[in-house]
Amino acid sequence: MSDRRSAIMDVAERLIRAHGYNGFSFREIADEIGIKSASVHYHFPTKADLAAAVAKRYRERFVDALGTAEAQGAGKIEAWRGLFQNALNQDGLMCLCGILAAEGNSLPAEVAKEAHAFLKFGVESLDEAAPGRGLAILSQLEGAMLIARSAADESVFQDATKELSAL
Amino acid sequence: MSDRRSAIMDVAERLIRAHGYNGFSFREIADEIGIKSASVHYHFPTKADLAAAVAKRYRERFVDALGTAEAQGAGKIEAWRGLFQNALNQDGLMCLCGILAAEGNSLPAEVAKEAHAFLKFGVESLDEAAPGRGLAILSQLEGAMLIARSAADESVFQDATKELSAL
DNA sequence: GTCTATAATTTGATAGAC
DNA sequence: GTCTATCAAATTATAGAC
Fold first, then answer.
1. Which positions in chain B touch A156 (Cβ < 8 Å)?
2. Closest chain B residue to A114 measured between Cα atoms?
């Protein structure tokens, strides 16, 4: 993948996680990189194409990051918690697929599909650590991100999920 | 409050809960009611005014609905859970302030403030039923709504929150 | 209170030159 | 691959008639 293409995805990912699918534009991305919006369309014909590609990459990267955290000795739940905590602390960003899921049926089908695939993976992943509780744990993690962003207080996510450390 | 004003708020609330703040327009509301968008501006000068008013009313109504459920014998946690479950089942709608919180810092300050006030109320309310666990429980409820919408399966919210019944 | 009309801006997207 | 130029549509919002 070209540098330019991945640079576009980087900016798109950050903007979606900050404002949602309906809260970013091709021009915003182009301006930030220093190109024209027509050039963004060369790499991604439509907005749905771009968002779906970003969501797919987000899931793949998340899988890798989980693997790294686990290889370093973290439990699965702590790995998930740590990745979300870092995103919030560093840039105040939601889980990409959490905010996409919240925007619900206003999304193009291909984007909704990728968001759903991530959440399905999340449930299965957390079920490995806590059989039958993956869905409940992912719910708590996603909801905690959402509330933490509203509070704009770094300790909120930690407080909201601290009981998960015991699992 | 006039009928027209509340009718506008009704449509706005449904649209925000379905698509988010950045996913609805004055024209959409006007078309649905059968008036012109300029008339919507008569009642609410700006989009931020409208969304903030809707969020304030949402919280007031939620307080009332909780009181009703509790008067009918429901525990506080079951009351919250039931209200969210009903919204999902009937119209596939998110918690208004959950989706607003997810959209984060792209919102006008007055709208973000109302969303935050609702979530703060939620934590305090749930803390009464489970001291020290209100934030964790609200997180789980909000996250479960978000995941349930992505799954488009009515049983997901129930599964994701079933353990809360025991509290 | 609602309308017509319109302004000013933004948006997603395309055609075609280079 | 990126640009200029442009389009058609949508958006928030206002002025002023009725």
1. 135
2. B150
Residues of A in contact with B97 (CB under 8 A): 150
Q: What is the distance in angstroms measured between the alpha-carbon CA of B72 and the sugar C1' of C11?
A: 50
How far is it, in rounded angstroms, from Cα A69 to Cα A102?
27
Tokens of A146: 């959402």
Could you tell me the maximum CA-CA distance found in chain A, to the nearest angstrom? Answer: 51
Q: Let me know: does B126 contact B137? Beta carbons within 8 Å.
A: yes
Distance B67 CA to C3 C1' (A): 43
Q: Please give the angle made by the CA atoms of B119, A125 and A121, to the nearest 5 degrees.
A: 80
Q: pTM of this prediction? A: 0.97
Distances (CA, A) of A11 to A29, A30, B119: 6, 9, 30
- The answer to whether B140 contacts A136, with C-beta atoms less than 8 Å apart, is yes
> Residues A21, A97: contact at Cβ < 8 Å?
no
The series of mean pLDDT values per 10 residues for chain A, 167 residues long, is 93 98 98 98 98 98 98 97 96 97 95 98 98 98 97 94 92
